[in-house]
Amino acid sequence: MSMKRVSVLIVLFFLAPMFIMSAVAESLSKKRTYGLRKKGSSHVQMRSMMVPVQTSKKSKRGKTAAVTVIMTVANGKNVGKVCNNAPRINDSLMGAWYKRPIARGYLYDRKKHKGRTNINYKRTPAQKAEDKRLLKIINKAIGSKEVIQIMVLSGIMKMGGGAVSKLPFSSKNGCDELH
């Protein structure tokens, strides 16, 4: 082989990874602009937080307990936009819960449901009223009617792993899209 061919092969060998990385970067760029999201509703898990929970119906003060909030976003393409507002959502929910602590019966307990998280479980009228109140607070915080359902789990639920956890909005704000 001539020196010229060897030089060309060496240059191509070193440039090939750059072309591959360029394609990956372009794909990630689309995800960052929320261009690769699916249509239809999507479930989003927020970072767990410590909030006041009523110990009894008569008590005005709450005992601090860990909860995890899962929301349903009406349009999956807007997951990133909702997640970018995660700090604002958390702040609004904390303010609402410190004014009126969460009733113990409102929390979804995974232990009672054999560890499975069922977003569409049957709620009592009191739970539905609290859902409506919290949805109004969340949608006001993000400035749209994008969040259509909420579920507050008792305890800490781990954030997901894999590709979703590497996206900018999930690592920065503690927001994870559930499948």
Fold and architecture overview:
The structure is a single chain. With 179 residues, the chain is α+β, with helices and mostly antiparallel strands. The chain folds into 2 domains: 1-33; 42-178, no CATH class. The chain contains 5 helices and 5 strands. The chain has helices spanning 3-32, 79-84, 86-99, 125-142, 168-173; strands at 42-46, 49-54, 62-73, 147-154, 175-178. Strands 1, 2, 3, 4 and 5 form a 5-stranded antiparallel sheet that branches. α3 crosses α4 (125-142). 22% of the residues are buried. Residues 162-173 have low confidence and may be disordered.
Low-confidence stretches: 162-173
Rounded to an integer in angstroms, the radius of gyration calculated over CA atoms is 22 Å
Q: Give me the secondary-structure category.
A: alpha+beta
Shape: elongated
- Output mean pLDDT: 78
Helix content: 40-55%
Largest sheet: 5 strands, antiparallel
Overall domain count: 2
Question: How many DSSP helices?
Answer: 5
Report, as a whole number of angstroms, the end-to-end distance. 53 Å
What portion of residues belong to β-strands? 15-25%
Helix and strand sequence = HEEEHHHEHE
